[in-house]
Amino acid sequence: MMTCKELIHDFLMEYVQGDLGAEARIEFEKHLSVCPSCVRYIDSYRRTVEMTRELGSGADAASLPPPPPEGLVRAILAVAPKPPHA
Amino acid sequence: MQMTANEIPPPVAEPGDAALLARLKRGDAAAFESLVRDLSPRLFAVARRMMGNDQDASDALQDAFVSAFKALGDFDGRSRLSTWLHRIVVNACLMRLRSEKRRQRRTIEEILPRFVADGHAAKSASAWESGPAAAPVREELRRAVREKIDELPEAYRTVLILRDIEQMTTEQAAAALGESESAVKTRLHRARLALRELLDPVMSRGSL
């Protein structure tokens, strides 16, 4: 039987992505049927990924990052290329 | 509809890219002003997520624009200007992250879940809070996730940001980091496992 360590270290990511092969998937789910701790672990792993993705997905609306400081914008513009004849 | 920093459509729209690019290549000051003012908020947000603070993000953004200005003559316009600049900002951040002596964090092994000799988990996983949380709690959680990501060892933090926050594919992240796709996959999984461990005390039922 697959151990908790094998399930979490070696197969979890592919399982969550739906990429686990049929044979490994059967073993994986057999373990889950007798291990409530791993069921909870997988739920928390999925939540971890979801919460991380939300930081970059626009769901982070309540904490809009501040715009770049005006001094930075000016510093960037100061090094912009000039017309060849300028 | 409310827009956020990540949803703001690049004002340098696709059809206008060619015209703007031509003006940029001529050294048109107004075109540079438009490019920098329109795109820098989104690009600064990317740099802040990668660098973790405003000062380092400012330095990386400046590096990126200097590189972009130098490379402008070779840019063929086949991708959007915003996409091209996004890639340059990511690379500028990676360069700084590689070269800087970042503050020492714990090793990944110190954070990863532990197992006993027969492969069972050393401690039973606790159930996490579920269901919709009130807005202040959601904001609190976002802050916690950002803080915990910052505690990851640099190599793991970088992969997690590129793949899960910047939504790069494994192939793109591998190319940006100069590593194999399998190395990126392994490191991403370990970064997620470690982040899950760091979030566990915050998210375990009864903690919120």
Summarize the structure.
The complex is a heterodimer of chains A (86) and B (208). By secondary structure, chain A is an all-alpha fold. Chain A has helices at 4-17, 22-34, 36-57, 70-78.
What does this structure look like?
The complex is a heterodimer of chains A (86) and B (208). Chain A is an all-alpha fold. Chain A has a domain at 1-57. Chain A has helices at residues 4-17, 22-34, 36-57, 70-78. The relative contact order of chain A is 0.10. Mean pLDDT of chain B is 86; it is low at 1-13. At the A-B interface, helix 1, helix 3 and helix 4 of A face helix 2, helix 3, helix 6, helix 7 and helix 9 of B.
Keywords:
heterodimer, A: 86 residues, mainly alpha, 4 helices, 67% helix, B: 208 residues, Rna Polymerase Sigma Factor, Chain: A, Arc Repressor Mutant, subunit A, 9 helices, 65% helix, elongated, disordered N terminus
Distance between the termini of chain A: 75 Å
Number of domain modules of chain B: 2
Which shape of chain A, going by the Cα principal axes? Answer: elongated
Low-confidence stretches of chain B: 1-13
Compressed to H and E, one letter per element, the order of chain A equals HHHH
- Within CATH, the superfamily of the largest domain in chain B carries the name Winged helix-like DNA-binding domain superfamily/Winged helix DNA-binding domain
Mean pLDDT over the residues of chain A: 88
Overall pLDDT metric of chain B? 86
Work out the strand percent of chain A. Answer: under 5%
**Distance between the terminal alpha carbons of chain B, to the nearest Å?**
30 Å
Shape of chain B: elongated
Greatest contact between two chains: A-B, 49 and 63 residues
Largest sheet of chain A: none
Radius of gyration of chain B: 20 Å
Indicate the proportion of strand residues of chain B.
Answer: under 5%
Question: How many strands, which pairing sense, and closed or not: the largest β-sheet of chain B?
Answer: none
